[in-house]
Design brief:
Helix content is 53%, strand content 0%. The protein is mainly alpha-helical.
Length: 83
């Protein structure tokens, strides 16, 4: 496992949740990228790494696709309490 070289950024609030969930279900970045592409989200490895590191913004279509692939709600990715 590679260690992140740069500090976590501030461009999005879901990146750490994406990485947390992806790792929790044992999914590799390349597998996530494949599933996103099936859903029409064209993202490369660098873009996903930047997304997870919160150094790039996330658009709404990416957020919806990420929630579908990772099996979590958009609210969970955004850190919104779902009581």
């Amino acid at each position: 496992m590679r260690i992140r070289k740069q500090p976590i950024g501030t461009k999005n609030i879901c990146g750490t949740k994406v990485e947390e969930r992806r790792k929790a279900i044992g999914m590799k970045q390349k597998d996530l990228l494949t599933q996103l592409q099936i859903r029409g989200v064209d993202l490369n490895a660098s873009g996903l790494s930047k997304l997870e590191g919160q150094v790039r913004s996330v658009c709404d279509t990416e957020l919806v696709a990420l929630s579908e692939v990772l099996g979590v709600s958009v609210n969970w990715l955004l850190g919104i309490d779902e009581n």
